[in-house]
Amino acid sequence: MRPYQSTRQWTHPEGYKYLAPWTNAVLLRFLIRKFTETLPRPEHRTKTQLDDAARSVVSNIEEGYKRPSTKEYLSFLGFSQGSLEEIKGLLKQVYQDRFLQSRPGSSLADLGIDLKEVKGLLKDSKGEIPLEVLYPPLASLNSPLASLKSPLASLKSPLTSSKSPLTSSNDFAVTLEMFMELVNKTDYLLRTLVKSLENKMAEEMPMSPREKWLKVQAIKRLEEDRKFDEELRKRAGLDEKLKKEFRGK
Predict the structure, then answer these.
(1) DSSP secondary structure of 126-174
(2) How far is CA 236 from CA 49, 199, 230, 242, in A?
(3) Which residues 6+ apart lie within 8 Å of 29 measured at CB?
(4) What is the pLDDT of residue 76?
């Protein structure tokens, strides 16, 4: 297989900050970090796995963007997609272990989180301002400590009522459904970006002499077919004209 030789070019050294997959991934990492702060100490392995996977999604988008070839960029986006899938599985596990609550029908909008607004703010700030400072809805998220002795442990999420039992032992505001919404939207954006880059790479990939010959032959066949169809239309028109003249006589 021929090595890929083209070199990528970008107009901004941190252009990834203008990409929706990156801004979504930054928000996901922030929410994951807030959630893992609520996990009890025995769950330190789960906490580390979630934090590392969320960090990996962001970091691989950033590193891949600066790679010299589109092929390498695609590889790093693949790593991000893999980490995103890992997060999805881990979130389902912590839900099953009753550390994360579920509210069917809940969405990020219930917490006042608008992904387009987050993208615009991160783009303007270039990601240099902490999210909870940059975006007010995130500052109001409850992140209770795992210890029941903490006064924060009594705080309730806006989605929790005293009459409705929690699916989780924690009252963290972000639900399983909200996390999945963000994960799935980020996954879709990454798949769209990958598809676009694959098309671009296919256009840039140098062709072998045989591929060039096949391309020329295909163009010739298309031109021959076009001329043949045109000739048929002319003949059909001529035959119709002769028929009319014959009927007129």
Answers:
(1) TT-S-HHHH-HHHHT-----S-TTSGGGG---TT--TTS--SSSS--SS
(2) 72, 41, 10, 10
(3) 54, 55, 57, 58
(4) 96
DSSP class of 16: G
Classify the C-alpha dihedral 9-11-15-20 as positive or negative.
negative
Q: Give tens-digit pLDDT for 116-143.
A: 888 888 878 877 777 877 787 887 775 4
CB contact at 8 A, 70 and 197 = yes
Token code pair at residue 98 = 């009753």
What sign has the CA pseudo-torsion 45, 49, 55, 56? positive
| Whole-angstrom distance, CA of residue 127 vs CA of residue 190 | 19
Q: Are the C-beta atoms of residues 35 and 79 closer than 8 Å to each other?
A: no
**Nearest C-alpha neighbor of 172 from the set 189, 156, 150, 184:** 156
User: Structure tokens of 59?
Assistant: 């970091």
Number of H helices, E strands in the chain: 8, 0
184 or 137, higher pLDDT: 184
**The pair of three-digit structure tokens given for residue 35, joined into one six-digit string:** 């959630």
Q: Which residues of 8-28 are buried (b: 16+ CB within 10 A; e: fewer)?
A: beeeeeeebbebbbbbbbbbb
